[in-house]
Amino acid sequence: MSTVLAMLAAVLLDHVWGEPRRAHPLVLFGRMANWIEQRTYADRRISGGLAWSLAVLPCVVVLLIVQRYAPMWLAWCMAVIVLYAALGLRSLGEHAQPVASALVADDLDAARVAVSRMVSRDTAALSAEQVATAATESVLENGADAVFGALFWFAVLGAPGALLYRLANTLDAMWGYRTPRYTRFGWASARLDDVLNFIPARLTAFTYAMCGHFDGAVRCWHTQAPRWKSPNAGPVMAAGAGALRVKLGGAAPYHGAWVLRPELGAGACADAMSIERALGLVRRGVVLWLVVALLIGFGMWGSAHA
């Protein structure tokens, strides 16, 4: 039950406070990762693996040791704080809502600026539909990365699991690009993130199906996800698009060139309401996970005291 209560407390803290405004732990970690990159970089996979290990493993080991020898109440509080720092549910809405609001106000320039804070693609020439598509995709994918993945690894391995997952996810966002600099150096970061996300991504896809249009989500998941180049983003976004009954995917501009991507979902084209509905899907999914966790926790507590 302590794990379940910690999950509830962390989600509540995220709802009330959102991300820390000053000295966010992940920002500090990013600076440390940059420092490590400057001193270990070489255009080799082994260098990237070494950099990943130096950035992630000491943090996780220190947390393991501190929690092991801390009083139980302090270890629990630390677990809540770690999970709270790993979650980005409120932040997801804070980034996506301005895009939807700008689209509703028919202010395409403002919508492009707002969505540029969410995605890595070029946004200056996007149409309103393409802006809505980008934001909706980002909400669905980050629901897996910044919410459900952290909850999953916390439930499985406690605070060290959530920390390991979130740091690995951060390094994937920093180093996991297929660019000349990171194709080899970032290989380990990208592959380790794929491994850590394999189960959470599929649980997220199932969650979207449960909280939306189930048949559409499952059909899109199984027919469209295999065509997506990312083994984890494919199931998440295909199932999410099917659950929302909206069209996503398609061509998108990256680094000055349009990239042809498979279409995802089915139904209406994306718009401001698609973004709002995607946020609602993620939030309902979090409620579902917490209810299931409570039921499991009460069941285990009852068995132990029978």
Write the layout of secondary structure elements.
Blueprint: H1 2-17, H2 25-40, H3 45-69, H4 72-86, H5 89-104, H6 108-116, H7 128-175, H8 182-185, H9 187-211, H10 214-224, H11 233-244, E1 246-249, E2 252-254, E3 257-259, E4 263-265, E5 268-269, H12 272-304
Parallel strand pairs: 1-5
Antiparallel strand pairs: 1-4, 2-3
Helix pairs in contact: 1-4, 1-12, 2-3, 2-7, 3-4, 3-7, 4-7, 5-6, 5-7, 5-12, 6-7, 7-9, 7-11, 7-12, 9-10, 9-11, 9-12, 10-11
Main location: membrane
Family: Belongs to the CobD/CbiB family.
GO cellular component, one term: plasma membrane
Note down, in words, how this protein is organized.
With 306 residues, this protein is mostly helical. The protein has one domain. It has 12 helices and 5 strands. It has a 3-stranded mixed beta sheet. A two-stranded antiparallel ribbon has the order 2-3. Strand 2 and strand 3 form a beta hairpin. Helix 2 packs across helix 3, helix 6 packs parallel to helix 7 and helix 7 packs antiparallel against helix 11. The longest helix is centred in the middle third of the chain and has 48 residues. The chain is globular, with a radius of gyration of 20 Å. The mean pLDDT is 93.
